[in-house]
Specification:
Strand content: 15-25%
Shape: globular
Distance between the termini: 47 Å
Largest sheet: 4 strands, antiparallel
Strand order of the largest sheet: 6-5-14-16
Structural class: alpha/beta
Number of helices: 28
Number of strands: 29
Length: 878
Amino acid sequence: MEKRFDPASYEEKWQKRWSEDGFFVAESPSSKPSFCIMIPPPNVTGNLHAGHALQTTIQDLLTRWKRMCGYNALWLPGTDHAGIATQLMVERQLIQEGTNRQSLGRERFLERAWKWTRQHSGHIRSQLDQLGASCDWSRERFTLDERLSKAVRAAFVRLYREGLISRGEYMVNWSPGLETAISDLEVEMRAVAGRLYHIAYPVEGSDERIVVATTRPETMLGDTAVAMHPDDDRYAHLLDRKAILPLVGRQLAFITDDVVDLEFGTGLVKVTPAHDLTDFEMGRRHGLESLQVIDRKGRMTQEAGAEFVGLDRFAAREKVVQMLREQGYLVKVDDYAHNVGHCQRSGVPIEPMISTQWFMDVEGMAGQALQAVASGDLRLVPDSWNKTWDHWLENIRPWCISRQLWWGHQIPAWYTPSGEVFVAASREEAAELAGTDEITQDPDVLDTWFSSALWPFSTLGWPEASEDFKTFYPTDVLVTGFDIIFFWVARMVMTGLHFTGHTPFHAVHLTGLIRDAEGQKMSKTRGNTVDPLELVEEYGADAVRFTLAILDSPGRDIPLDPERMAGYRSFGNKIWNAVRFSLSRVGQATVQESLEVSGLAAPERWILSRLSKTAAEVNAKFADYRFDEACQRLYHFFWGELCDWYIELSKPALAGDSPRPQVGEVLLTVLDRSLRLLHPVMPFLTEELWQRLPGRQGIHPSTICLAPYPVAEDAWDDSATEGKMEVFFQIAAWVRNLRAELGVPPRDKTVLFLDSSDAEVSSFLGDLEGMALPLLRLEALRLETVPADAHSDVVAGVAVGLVIPERELSAEDRGRLVVEREKLLEQRERTRDLLTNEAFLAKAPEKVVEQNRRRLEEIRDRLERLEAGLAGDRPGIS
């Protein structure tokens, strides 16, 4: 077996072989229990980022685990057409060519978009392959596939006929940068250092002037009223009067409305129904006129007046302020930090605008989604998201589902020349309903999230009752970032319950954000983003996966530290060397499918018991989505219990110096099951090593991917032996620490005395002599009273003493001991001062005080040994 641990030498090889041999293709139908995960579809033209790598790791871990547990496991991959993002990319390419989509026309533009998509579509798969994803690529889906388009049309038609989709005029979030409506969820609130402008409005027929405040003075050109709270007596005398709009001269009625905040500003607010949602709703309640003064490109309209028409909205703001100042209407300007909605995609501030759009009434569906979590049918992990879930769904608004784009699912609605609308699954059906072929399809497309909301069941063949749908729906778990819990998760739950009667999955594991090593959010602006594939190239996919999985603690963001990743690469190296060493020592031994523990020595009984309990713990943690705790247990078992203790204890027997029954078989069997336990997290390394184990063919002839996942073995449970071995390990650690403290060279043999009042423990420790001598570099182990001249202590209830052969203290050793003594003296003084400080004793928790007392005792013990060594009046030092 090769000495050098080199992940690059085998990772690509195994991913290719797994795919070619069809190990990840799920059955439909199947006699096995089913397990299904839907990949959150990345943008078809995108690159995987660190968050994708985390979610890919968790999804693959779960799928591999369930596959090994005997499930018919399907991890269904696919990509999203990403309406806005893809259209932006293609339009930018067209601009570079000196043209635009309007010049091309819709048909030719869509041809270009499809060409772009096909050029980039395979990139996602290659990235997932490098991370070890065990997807069933035979079932790959794309949200614009014809079969998924069929599902989208069926859903739209059904919702329309149920009265849940309608077309009407309403206030929407308009993105001037994209020239389309966007949903509330696509609006990113950003803190802006703006200004609050206080403007005087004259009251008609008097010298009185009222003052209103606004952050957007350009919108005053569309004012149609001034509002006050009904209980505000300060302005009751104005209710039968009119205000005069500065710069324009329009008369404005005074109205009362409960929405006005009595405490904000002067208590009076300007009302612009066409450019503010609150004002829009107030305008409807009071029958106010709506004047649109800003158009879809963010420029001023004719309604704004001749002096402003055509100006950009922000240029118009400057001009309005200048004119107000010149004409004496600008009272004052305050600096004002506030949140402004920005389009997530374009980064441009959104413009609230009245627009005719398609809306979906989701109030009833939201109630079902609320009940799903409340009843336990759907579990959010961690459950700290439950309150957020409830709050959003309880306050849900109609969903604007139309977008003024060309790339996407064109809305299946057709219009006659007279303006009648007919919604149907096809043009032919619409023509039949209309009674004429003179129909024109609505030019808008559906919000990308509409098709994504159907993803868990449209990918399985819905609305048809396909075998895949019957086999895998409802799916089991969704793994995604918390940032799209409402963009996507809630909408899938709502549509899943509405169309199928079932939640689309039983649990949602919401991952945290990936941050840098200092805890800062990753961003291109900060320059602290990482490419997961570059990490794979440097550390290997297994180390990247293990790092992400062990850091995935519920409700916490993940600080991605390359040093930690390097540490888990070292873990892979440790596993490699452990298998390499074992294979060179076990002779003709082979992996055993089962082992009878009777007749085995204590170390073998101990490691099998620990392996059984580790398997039970890891299975339980995976089932509870505690991947961090599962990985910590795997790490501790393989590195600590298997490598640091059991393999070391096995060396004498493997060398023939201290024969023990079946040591080789036990070691290989433990390695076999350990590799299988690790496989879901570290698939490449475990497959490479498992293939080399003699006898593994009896477990599975082809691959570790399909080998049974280890579970607890009741016959191996031996808590009594574990307890006694723990006593031995504590004594061994004491001996090692003492030798290190005293600087005893490895070549110097010592004598260990053990004196226990428990005859059973004493006998057990005596039986370990053959292993203890080489492990602890002992000349002898004696079950006798500890002599007075030994370095002594009590460890795990056993009196222990170590006699070190006399030797000259070298100048180097003396210097080291002197330095350590000085450090201990400083620590002793600091701890003494703390324990004599009345303020500390009064305020510090008793636990902290007790820790410091124990620390002082430990320092005294170590100083005593060091002083004795330096004085030369103890054996082994003089």
